[in-house]
Amino acid sequence: MFKTLSLLSVFTIFGFFFNDIYMNQNNLIPTTFVSSENVSEDQNPLLQPWSGNYGGYPAFDKVKIKDFLPAFEVAMKEGLNEIEKIANNPAPPTFENTMLELEKSGHSISRLIAIYGVWSSTMNSDEFQNVETIIEPKLSEYSDKIAQNSKLFKRIEKIYNSEEYKTLSLEAQRLTYLKYSGLVRNGARLNETDKAKLSNYNQALAALYTKFSQNLLSDENDKIVVIENKTDLKGLSKDLVDAAASAGVGVNKGKWVINNTRSSVDPFLTYAENRDLREKVWRMFISRGDNGDKNDNNSTIVEILKIRALRAKLLGFKTHADWRLDNSMAKTPENAMKLMMDVWKPAILKVKEEVADMQAIADKEGKNIKIEPWDYRYYAEKVRLAKYDLDQNQVKEYLQLDKLKEGMFWVAGQIFNMSFSKLENIPVYHPDVEVWEVKNKLTGKHIGLWYFDPYARAGKRSGAWMNAFRDQERVSGDIPTIVSNNANFVKGRPGEPVLISWDDASTLFHEFGHALHGLSSRVIYPTLSGTNVFTDYVEFPSQLLEYWLSTPEVLQNYALHYKTGNPIPEELVKKIHAASTFNEGFATTEYLSSALIDMKLHLAEVPTTDPDKFEKETLESLGMPKEIVMRHRTPQFGHIFSSDQYSAGYYSYLWADVLTADAYQAFIEGKGPYDESVAKSLTDNVFSVGNTIDPADGYKQFRGREPKTEALMKKRGLN
């Protein structure tokens, strides 16, 4: 459910290391690019400006993997030449000849990286992984050459300390401050020897991130559970059985397959009556990256932690966690840890209550078992049915993916004055992908494009996320944004609607919240655009949108039965609301255990040499209930080991949820979820401002005060 930063923002802000770019630590990477074919610059489609309406769009239909290597060679050379021209300008540094020129630079490589990122996350293959091995070290080196350019830093530093700075607009001041402080945080003041050492660290980490991600993808693609007897599917709804049958088409034709992804595993663990098969599927899933084979990630994690610790010390920080949170809303690891522990204690107490309820049902059934992790979801559903008379399978019959998508569009129209129109003539990278034009419904003005890639497939990483292909800006003209939402819903039989769970519907709205955050951007400079904000703030707008799923307006008009077309009954809606905090002990503990492990791994001044042992001992010391495992066990924790983006930052979802719960109360205290004045304030102070102001200030302007934690505890049923 995480949002991937636009790579343009990474280049222009300098305040972050190159997200989702990886590097080989060995000296096996060639120092020059190698291409199987020599394609001239003017013939390579990856180097061409995006043409067409709507400010242009990617020519995904023309992408060939063989073109990436020569394209990057040209684009990097062009980008570095642009930087050198700015850095060596003989004129005294000014905002216009330095900061503004930086904002205009790097467009060729930004376009290229946007396409490259799509292939990396959704169209990955053995051929593409070979390209990654060559490209990613070069990208890390490229990023370091910009961040460590002494002449460039001196120009920015002079502007930041100049009289001119005081006369700049607040947005221009914010841009200058972020670039200056980002360069300082990332080693601009190091001597040349230490800069070289820092670059080596970054390159080594980049390689390890690639290795981790590719190992995890291999385990998710290659490991499956094959079910030969339909009787072993007892308990699963028809759509889940059909999905398992569809997954078996091909090598396992005539059989049923449970893939090694959350979208396939979680429903099976929730409904399958065969306990032995539940355990088998559970063990497959929680062992990703931890099987002692060629895809095992433990040694890779050890190296990542070691190098991160060395890098943090080189940059003047005690630990990697201190370095990462220096540039966040939380500010320090201690602040993040306090919030997590304040929630952790009531969460594990709640788990004990939940387990007792489940054990009572198992005992009543005469099963003679003790609740184990592979039983939790299964018996939680039995408790839900007993306590609230709420059958999630019954709810699911009203949750059609296409109808919920219409519901999201309607909410966007009510809160943000946006309208969505499907486009049929825009090239896509896979037949599953849809493209929609987004307009202001009041003025008809074009806002941007929204791409939707909903289904799981081989070569696509698991989970759900948002990408920005292009940031909104007004430096190079009125440039509209292009964003995408990506999910891993399981396809059923052709021609039948895709039904999703309530949790999946919440995730759908969550990721759409990220997209709306990007689409709402109204800034001048691309560095400050859209979702280019602190990690522990970026999840706030997305989590906030989840609330609108359960509003009566959405449920009555878009939660329609897949057979009858009737809206979800009011009685069923009441049951959903009554059970809104049900199983929250599990959900909070599952998430928080991962966040705590993340933080403790990165607070250690002497990094662990045994991640599995560290995980086990730390969880024991925290009192982790044995009936639950981490949502993301360490060897498969892509949030923190596939890039720097969420490292020592998985706490961000909880930090942002404090804001989320508090912010929604502003609507409740007003005229309700669709209060126009509150929606306008939310747009003006949160969604549209990007990083033009400090997020804490933006929130206070919206809410009129600091956030309070009471709403969070109530939301989670932990008060």
Summarize the biggest pleated sheet: 6 strands, mixed
Average predicted local confidence, pLDDT: 93
The helix content is: 40-55%
Q: Give me the side-by-side strand order of the main sheet.
A: 1-7-8-6-5-4
Class by SSE composition: alpha/beta
Strand proportion:
5-15%
Shape: globular
* Rounded Rg: 25 Å
Ends apart, CA distance between termini: 26 Å
Q: In DSSP terms, counting alpha (H) and pi (I) runs of 4 or more, how many helices?
A: 29
Total DSSP E strands: 8
- Unreliable parts: 1-36
Write a short abstract of this structure.
The chain is of the alpha/beta class. Helices cover 54% and strands 7% of the residues. Strand 5 and strand 6 form a beta hairpin.
Please explain how this structure is put together.
The chain has 719 residues and is an alpha/beta fold. Helices cover 54% and strands 7% of the residues. It is built from 29 helices and eight strands. The protein has helices at residues 7-13, 68-87, 95-104, 107-122, 126-147, 150-160, 163-167, 170-185, 192-222, 238-247, 262-271, 275-286, 298-314, 320-325, 333-364, 373-388, 392-396, 401-416, 502-519, 535-545, 552-558, 570-578, 584-603, 611-622, 638-641, 652-669, 676-687, 695-703, 710-715, and strands at residues 2-3, 224-227, 256-259, 418-423, 434-440, 446-455, 465-470, 481-489. Strand 5 (434-440) and strand 6 (446-455) form a beta hairpin. It starts with a strand and ends with a helix.
